[in-house]
Amino acid sequence: MSDDVPIGALIGLLFILLLLSAFFSGTETALMSLNRYRLRHKARNGHRGARLAEKLLARPDRLIGLILFGNNLVNFSAAALVSVVSLRLGGTPAVAIGTFIFTVIVLIFAEVMPKTWAALYPETLAFPASYLYYPLMKVAYPIVWLINLVANSLLSIFGVTSKGGADQKLSIEELRTLVEESRSILPQKRQKMLMGILELEKYTVDDIMVPQKDIIAVDLSGAWENVLKQIRGSHFTRLPVYRDSLDNNVLGILHMKRLVQSGSIDKLHPEDIEGLLDQPYFVPEGTPLNSQLVQFQRTHQRTALVVDEYGDIQGLVTLEDLLEEIVGEFTSEPVTTESEVTPDATGKGYIVDASANIREINRMMNWKIPTDGPKTINGLILEQLEKIPETGTGLMLDAYPIEILETSESAIKTVRVIPET
């Protein structure tokens, strides 16, 4: 029968089979290379090709079975046709030569080229191909089902099941990498905001709280004139109120807006203040920032006092402090960090208050002093030296040369930091 078919027709059929082989090879790579999250986004936005591709990829074992069935059917048919053409052109010796030449042609034009193109531009091939594969899957389902039944049964012997595919969920670390790699399409400010959200779980309220010694609070046991003076001069919208001891007798949180709405401050009496206070809200130290943000939202609170395991107050954290971890500085309240870092006389280093929060300094100065230990420069140096050093002592904090400028009996007061160059 084959002798009756013109040699030109056989070569034309061989060319068609080669194109089909390239199609199956390229579209297989394209479909498997699709970004699943981009695919899901396009499918939800109504892209028909994306919707069909998503349905096909829901059962990759069936899709692979269909493509490989078609690809092998085409390749084996082409190999048989090459043998026929070779026999007619040069006899038996030509079969080996024809098989070798056809193998090279298939490798280049039906494997490497289409798969490379598909890997570089998967959507260009995958979406149009899904229009063909989806109805073809319906037609060839019995054959594909049988192939998968045998293949999956054999795989199950090795503990591999079609339901045990790779987990497509992203971890937090993977999301961070994704955001970091998106700087070419995301404005820098938005990228920092997204990174701030993802990093909330890495930090706790201890990292952003105002230490107890720096809390500005109203002591009702003092002279009433001094209390009024402190209230009038306050730049803060909320002030903790206590009597005698902040640790043992916190009365509540004074909301300055509510105080102004109540009438003239000058006509205020001591007994009036307690009626204007919100109940104090306490949170344990070590609470992750992402959890605390949820708690602020759930309890409708904006200010929390951080306490240790003994109930002693360690610091104060506000909703504004927490949000600034995401969006950066936005509060109109005075920021004291700038006064804690000043250039020295040489212009090469900076005089730093050793009690300053390391993360705030890093953020303001774009430094990278380690933050995985103590929260202050003083604490970090004491942890490294295990004693209070003498004035003039030098050391290295990571890559930062440090010189001790002033100390007291119990703490380091100021240091000189020479930033990385």
Q: What does this entry show, briefly?
A:
It is built from 18 helices and 13 strands.
Structure description:
The protein has 421 residues and is of the alpha+beta class. It folds into 3 domains: 2-157, no CATH class; 203-327, Roll (CBS-domain), CATH 3.10.580.10; 337-417, Uridine Diphospho-n-acetylenolpyruvylglucosamine Reductase, domain 3. Helices cover 54% and strands 13% of the residues. The chain is built from 18 helices and 13 strands. It has helices at residues 7-33, 36-44, 48-57, 60-90, 92-120, 122-139, 141-157, 172-180, 188-198, 205-208, 224-233, 256-261, 270-275, 289-299, 319-327, 337-340, 358-365, 377-385; strands at 210-211, 218-219, 238-242, 250-255, 277-278, 282-284, 303-307, 313-318, 341-343, 350-353, 394-397, 400-407, 412-417. The strands form 3 sheets. Strands 9-10-13-12-11 form a 5-stranded antiparallel β-sheet. Strands 1-8-7-6 form a 4-stranded mixed β-sheet. A 4-stranded mixed β-sheet has the order 2-3-4-5. Helix 11 (224-233) links the parallel strand 2 (218-219) and strand 3 (238-242). Helix 1 (7-33) runs parallel beside helix 5 (92-120) and helix 5 packs across helix 6. It starts with 6 loop residues before the first helix and ends with a strand. The model is unreliable at 332-336 (pLDDT under 50).
